[in-house]
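User: Predict the structure for this protein chain, please.
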Amino acid sequence: MNENSLLAFAVTATIIELTPGPNMGYLAVLSASAGRRAGLAATAGVAAGLLGAGIASSLGLAAIVAASNLVYEALRWGGVLYLLWLAWEGWRDAPEGIGKPVDASGHAGFFLRGFITNLLNPKAGIFYISVFPAFVDENRPLLAQTAVLLAMYVAIATVIHSAVVISTDAIRPLLENKGNVTLVRRILSVLLVLVAGWFLYSTRRVVP
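Assistant: Here is the predicted structure, written as structure tokens:
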């Protein structure tokens, strides 16, 4: 792969990742609610999910998802329901407060949530099978090119997601100073519901 192709792919991946989606929405809500460490743990989970989806795509699993409307819809609705469950959990636990400390053992749970949130997003697999081929040179080793593109995409996504987490965490003191933790957490839960609704709308398949 030449430098121009890599640069074009990097720009494409950056634009796609800057577009609001379930990963970005969930990480922002989580960081505002549980703090930077929890958000970064979930970010690592999202990165692992992106990597897993990339590997699955290279094995042909993403093509199956793209070809099967039933599998695609199952993943799509699974992602929506999972986001709604997270919103309900935040609403239910609102009295516990935004500033409640999260111990190290809880970070594994946030990692797993980030991982699951990404795996239940069929758009990740569709990205790999629709965007990757445009940047792959068939006359060169496919495995090496795929590995480079995958590593670059996961790195770009992780940088952007980390920036979202850090930026959101920076405004937590403003939220805590309002003195109404229950209200703020429930607002964040409502925002997560809106993210789930946007995800459901944006991933729909339009039948011609």
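Residues 94-103 have pLDDT under 50 and may be disordered.
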